[in-house]
Specification:
Elements lengths: L9 H4 L7 E2 L2 E2 L9 H15 L3 H16 L6 H17 L3 H19 L4 H16 L3 H15 L5 H16 L3 H18 L4 H14 L3 H17 L2 H20 L3 H18 L5 H16 L3 H18 L5 H16 L3 H18 L5 H16 L3 H15 L3
Antiparallel strand pairs: 1-2
Helix pairs in contact: 2-3, 3-4, 4-5, 4-6, 5-6, 6-7, 7-8, 8-9, 8-10, 9-10, 10-11, 12-13, 12-14, 13-14, 14-15, 14-16, 15-16, 16-17, 16-18, 17-18, 18-19
């Protein structure tokens, strides 16, 4: 899919792999690839975008949304994902009124189901900012980017950096160069830390702003840094391939097609390790996916080996209180219960629940999943009172209370 605002939102690029396995049974919410036909339409849309055939992509994405809405209980977040994909294609086609109309449908659904600081909502805010900037309304763009920043700031990941970068571009367009440099600096710090392949774009942005300020020598230095960074690899197409393999693996995993899931995760891993390296947040997500396949096979020791690899990277790059790290804690804890290490499992689960309460909200399905897993761990520990307490908390989330 063509990048919007310099990067495909992680919300669209890599699934959060929110699935957890309670007693070996998947409790994941329905994903964008919940049925084969929805997955086929979505993948066909992505291929059409890659070929530059945006009209065909638009039809495929609309078909996917229509099929998703026909499900008995369509997931609001999956609806938002389909709508944001449609909006991106409208932006590619410069159909700004149509893009705005779709985003206006997605916005209340995202805010209600994901909260104002959730990844889905942040992606919608970001696309509104992109739309406004495309139309030259930098004041409105900055207002939307500010909302996106507030939604994404706590994660300090590639999406956070993309928002900071876009804010910097908006300030540069308004001639507010000091503000632009301050926001480019925020983007630079994050992108250097996580080894983001779009780091060169931020170096180039700094160079342009310095040139606008008349600092030609300084601008030349930053342009040289950008050229050097771009020369290390041409990562965009490789990352798109990794995305395709990763999302295919998620679909196979949900269908319990474990051999194909493992093959797709391994393909994604091979690309990511080569292009962005081992110490990268996206690589860590693929490690977690491999661990989930092992867990689904009942091989919890192998699952923990991969979860540990993922956590070592996530804790270093994203922090222990990041939503993606929390989901890995959640998955690792289930494996630990099966391996008999319930105290460590509860430590992971309580950390995950606290983070998900803060980042996704206390009423989010991922938070409820953590609550159910805490209840399950306590039941394995024969602590019936605490197990009942956490089951009740999960039930209240499910009931929308």
């Amino acid at each position: 899919m063509a990048a919007i605002g310099g990067r495909i939102p992680r919300f669209l690029m890599f699934s959060l792999l929110a699935a957890s396995f309670v007693a070996g049974v998947s409790t994941a919410r329905a994903d964008i690839a919940a049925t084969p036909k929805i997955a086929q339409e979505t993948q066909a849309g992505k291929r059409a975008v890659d070929r530059g055939n945006n009209p065909a992509a638009l039809q495929h994405y609309r078909n996917a949304l229509e099929r998703q809405q026909m499900l008995p209980n369509p997931s609001p977040l999956d609806t938002v994902r389909h709508q944001t994909q449609i909006a991106i294609v409208h932006l590619n086609l410069k159909q700004y009124a149509e893009a705005r109309a779709v985003l206006m449908q997605a916005l209340p659904l995202a805010e209600q189901s994901d909260g104002v600081d959730g990844p889905a909502t942040g992606a919608v805010y970001q696309l509104f900012g992109t739309l406004s900037s495309r139309q030259g309304d930098w004041v409105e763009a900055l207002a939307w980017y500010d909302k996106a920043w507030r939604a994404r700031e706590h994660d300090r990941d590639a999406d956070t950096a993309a928002t900071a970068h876009d804010i910097a571009e908006a300030y540069d367009a308004r001639g507010q160069y000091d503000e632009a440099l301050a926001w480019y600096e925020k983007a630079r710090v994050i992108r250097e830390r996580i080894k983001d392949p779009l780091l060169s774009a931020t170096y180039e942005g700094i160079a342009e702003t310095r040139a606008h300020m008349g600092e030609r020598a300084n601008a030349k230095q930053w342009q040289s840094k950008a050229q050097f960074e771009r020369g290390k690899d041409d990562a965009s197409n490789n990352l798109l391939a990794a995305m395709e393999h990763h999302n295919a693996a998620v679909h196979y995993l949900q269908q319990h097609d474990l051999n194909d899931a493992m093959q797709s995760f391994e393909k994604s891993r091979a690309i990511l390790e080569r292009v962005v390296g081992v110490e990268n947040a996206d690589t860590a997500m693929t490690y977690r996916g491999i661990g989930m396949v092992h867990a689904a096979r009942g091989d919890y020791r192998q699952a923990m080996a991969w979860y540990d690899k993922a956590l070592a990277i996530q804790e270093k790059l994203l922090g222990s209180d990041n939503a993606s790290t929390a989901m890995t804690y959640n998955n690792a804890a289930v494996a630990l219960v099966h391996l008999g290490d319930i105290p460590k499992a509860l430590q992971y689960l309580q950390s995950a629940a606290a983070t998900l309460e803060r980042t996704a909200g206390p009423h989010h399905p991922n938070t409820a999943s953590a609550y159910r897993n805490i209840a399950w761990a306590y039941s394995k520990q024969q602590d019936k009172a605490k197990a009942a307490e956490w089951r009740q908390k999960a039930a209240l989330v499910a009931a929308g209370k």
